[in-house]
Amino acid sequence: MVENSQSLKEKLEASKKYLQNADLKGANLAGAELKGALLGGADLSGANLKKIFLGDAELHKANLTEANLEDANLNSADLNKANLNRANMRGLYARSADLRYANLSNADLTKSNFRQCSMFKTWMKNSNFSGANLQNIKGSQSQMQESIFCGAKLEGADLSGARMEGADFAGAGLQVANLSRGVLKNSNFKGADLKGANLRYTIGLTKDQIESALIDKNTLLPSYLKVEWKSPNEFECHAVESKHSS
Q1: Which residue of 2, 26, 150, 165 shows the fewest CB atoms closer than 10 Å?
Q2: pLDDT at 1
Q3: Rounded CA gap, 200 and 109, in Å?
């Protein structure tokens, strides 16, 4: 869809309730005011949406692949099953948005805000969440392999059953987070704060990973790892041989 950026922006702002399945591929909508817009199924792939306001917008199944959403506002938006693969979401504000089953893979989400978002079975593979706020997200069974979460805030996050192989959580805050039944093979937890976190029934967690992190006596570990406290702040982690190991 090719049209003068200003006239297109004005037209959409005037008719934002009737934009379902709209063809806006590659459109320049930077800074547009589209609060509550109905964009379900719309094609916004490659569109310039920098600093756009889409608070409370309906974007169910929208195509946002390779879109520029830098510093955009998607507060409380419905992005259920939306495709944001390879999108630029640096500084995006999307607190309390619905991102269940959405695709956020191969994307730049540096310093974005997804606090309290619904992210059940969300795809977040090979993405950069450095410095992002993911506090209290509901991200159970999400796909987070090979993504970067360095310095990210994940306090209270529900990541139960998530696939996190090769993810980098260096320096991340994971206090009281629920990682139970998660897959953590080759994940980096150096300097990560796991105080009070639930790591029960996790797969692939090693003593080296635990010893590189910050834990306390409220951290729940899988049965194959045991911690011996030397002092209130010093501990040793030991692998426990399974009775069924060959």
Answers
A1: 2
A2: 43
A3: 29
